[in-house]
Write a structure and sequence with these properties.
The complex is a heterodimer of chains A (313) and B (287).
Chain A: E1 5-6, H1 8-22, E2 26-30, H2 42-45, E3 50-52, H3 57-69, E4 73-79, H4 80-83, H5 88-97, E5 103-107, H6 125-129, E6 136-138, H7 143-155, E7 160-163, E8 169-170, E9 185-188, E10 193-197, H8 202-214, E11 219-223, E12 226-228, H9 232-242, E13 244-252, H10 257-268, E14 272-278, H11 288-294, H12 299-311
Parallel strand pairs in A: 2-3, 2-4, 4-5, 5-7, 6-7, 10-11, 10-13, 13-14
Antiparallel strand pairs in A: 1-8, 6-12, 9-11
Helix pairs in contact in A: 1-7, 3-5, 8-12, 9-10
Chain B: H1 3-27, E1 29-30, H2 33-37, H3 39-49, E2 64-67, H4 73-83, H5 123-136, E3 143-148, H6 156-166, E4 172-178, E5 181-182, E6 185-186, H7 187-190, H8 196-202, E7 206-211, H9 215-223, E8 233-238, E9 257-258, H10 261-284
Parallel strand pairs in B: 2-3, 3-4, 4-8, 7-8
Antiparallel strand pairs in B: 1-9, 5-6
Helix pairs in contact in B: 1-3, 1-4, 1-10, 3-4, 3-9, 5-6
The chains are: A alpha/beta (313), B alpha/beta (287).
Chain lengths: 313, 287
């Protein structure tokens, strides 16, 4: 039901179990991390297909690579920075360079480990994983698309990185929404400006778009759930047709969704852009919604930023 | 084991050393020390132990070989060419633009290469995953890994060593090419791993220490794996770095060799000497 709050990790875990029911090749690897990733029921249901390793994320990426060489589809979920920044070289060489069919999932991603501080935030994961050729990066923005993303990721052959948050998030889509890897979703059409959101703050972008419409601004709103490969055509048509783009992400401005979109626009159809995200500093700690407010990611703040951006001739 | 068979393998080992020299001639430089120290290990594997098919390199039931110390790739290329995985003429492209045999192996460029290694401390985890996957499939295949002793300082190896014993990977067999030298000097002075056998044992492995240039010993020990029920096996192979080249043996500066023309001639001469000795042995054996 639209706006119903659902637990992203629980949703993710249920989808993996659903997929594993019909696909015998799916195995789950845990770095003391399965139960915290919504996969607590997986070893109960598939005891022979769940492997515990303890806290050794670098090694788990290697084991996943080796398992994939034998035709298995390893799913490895743990706290986002520990499956991206920590084992980066293993991700790059053992999964990317070897092109292995492994699904890495960073949970409690972005700022959602709010008060645990910068060691546990992952606002650089998209930036670093995006540099690895051939890795698909998926950042779904609601429970319905998390579930669909799991199935799409399993169906896709090749290394994937998917990120999900921690607090409950509102349902934004009907169950029958069309979800395809590499294709953005136009949530709302408009002509004055395009807002592009992703992941945990997509719902904030949706709310901001509503506020802007109420102020008489015609907003096109796009959900980019697949950050790599990026939906180039959709982005260029937004650039051509609205002339202005604002990106909204719970990530460093450096190297994230905004950067990826700018890389396309600046070369093919330059337009004015505003990137809302976190600047070149470690994020602070505190209650999640307050943290988002600190970085200008609440709907009313996004609205103000957009209005200011539009009035800047 | 039949002494004739051993002599044949010794002759193959010489061919691998010749192939390594051929690669160095083509590329003018390369990681020669650790390639030459592990020639007998690869000879035993590719010409006796491994259940592989060069015509069908992706055969599902094949044994896997993971070269964790990817810089030893010259010996891998030498063995694969000799075993018929690809045309030996490819060896002459070493160092050239887009050569299928880069300075660290790339599985996408040639048949018979199982992993992309080069950064140290990756191979054991990948091999562990292979062993786990093969066991899940109830495959009889085994996974062999070659590690360098300098490589053992990488902490990721010990994550993998713990996991392999925790998951009782009996089908995993590791060689440590203990040639005792790394770029900066003697390995135990750079970062000591001693007592190495006890270290592996404490991680839950079955351990043997052997002469890594003795083909018969390599083969007979591998045939006794798993050394202990329910445990992965490690063979610590004591070797001599740059084995076969008189002017380079046991010398730290031949880890990576920028070959001078006069050194190449000397190397050729050394290998010819080995060939003469082998021929005498072969004649005496009446082969």
């Amino acid at each position: 039901m639209i706006n119903e709050l659902k637990d992203p990790r629980k949703t993710f875990g249920e989808a993996v179990i659903e997929a594993a029911d019909s696909n015998q090749n799916i195995v789950v690897l845990s770095a003391d991390s399965s139960s915290g990733s919504g996969l607590g029921d997986f070893p109960k249901k598939f005891p022979d297909r769940h492997f515990e390793f303890g806290i050794m994320e670098q090694g788990v990426i290697g084991f996943a690579s080796g398992l994939a060489t034998t035709g298995k589809i390893p799913v490895f979920a743990a706290i986002a920075p520990f499956v991206t920044a920590r084992p980066f070289e293993m991700f790059r060489n053992d999964l990317g360079y070897m092109n292995q069919n492994v699904k890495v999932v960073g949970r409690c991603a972005s700022l959602t480990y709010d008060q645990l501080g910068s060691t546990h935030h992952s606002i650089d994961d998209v930036a670093i994983i995006r540099t690895i050729p051939g890795v698909t990066i998926i950042n779904p923005g609601d429970p319905v698309t998390i579930r669909k993303a799991v199935h799409a990721m399993i169906k896709h052959v090749g290394p994937c990185y998917m990120k999900i948050g921690s607090p409950k998030m509102p349902v934004l889509y009907e169950e029958d929404v069309d979800f395809n890897l590499g294709k953005g979703i136009v949530i709302k059409d408009g002509t004055d400006v395009t807002l592009i959101g992703t992941g945990t703050v997509l719902s904030k972008a949706v709310a901001a778009a509503k506020l802007l419409e109420e102020s008489g601004i015609s907003v096109r709103l796009i959900d980019i759930h697949t950050i790599k490969p990026l939906d180039r055509e959709l982005i260029l048509s937004a650039a051509r047709e609205t002339g202005k783009i604002v990106t909204i992400e719970e990530h460093f401005i450096a190297g994230g969704l905004g950067s990826a979109i700018a890389e396309i626009c600046i070369q093919e159809y330059p337009v004015k852009m505003k990137m809302i995200g976190i600047g070149d500093h470690y994020a602070s700690n505190g209650p999640y919604e307050e943290l988002l407010g600190k970085y200008g990611l609440q709907p009313d703040q996004i609205k103000e930023t957009v209005i200011k951006f539009l009035s800047n001739k | 084991m039949d002494s004739k068979e051993i002599l044949k393998l010794e002759y193959t080992a010489l061919k691998l050393r010749r192939n390594i020299l051929r690669l160095i001639r083509a590329g003018e430089a390369g990681h020669v020390g650790g390639a030459l120290s592990s020639v007998e290990i690869l000879t035993a594997l590719y010409f006796n132990l491994l259940n592989i098919d060069p015509v069908n390199p992706k055969w599902k039931e094949r044994d896997r070989f993971v070269l964790s110390a990817g810089h030893k790739c010259l010996v891998l290329y030498a063995a694969l060419a000799e075993r018929g995985f690809f045309d030996a003429a490819i060896l002459d492209t070493y160092g050239a633009l887009d050569s299928p045999i880069p300075g660290h192996p790339n599985m996408h460029k040639l048949p018979g290469i199982e992993t992309n290694t080069g950064a140290l401390g990756h191979g054991l985890s990948i091999a562990g995953g292979m062993a786990l996957g093969l066991r899940l499939d109830k495959s009889p295949a085994k996974v062999y890994v070659l590690m360098g002793d300098g490589e053992l300082a990488e902490g990721s190896n010990w994550e993998a060593a713990s996991a392999a014993s925790m998951h009782k990977l009996e089908n995993l067999i590791v060689f440590v090419d203990r040639n005792k030298l790394q770029i900066s000097g003697p390995t135990i002075e750079v970062m000591s791993y001693e007592p190495l056998d006890e270290r592996w044992r404490s991680f839950g492995w079955g351990v043997r220490v052997i002469d890594g240039h003795n083909l018969e010993s390599i083969i007979s020990n591998v045939k006794q794996t798993p050394f202990e029920k329910g445990k992965p096996s490690v063979i610590i192979a004591d070797t001599l770095k740059s084995k076969g080249l008189s002017f380079a043996e046991g010398k730290v500066n031949f880890h990576y060799w920028k070959a001078k023309p006069e050194e190449l001639e000397l190397a050729e001469h050394d290998l010819n000497m080995i060939e003469e000795q082998l021929r005498t042995k072969i004649e005496r054996a009446g082969l």
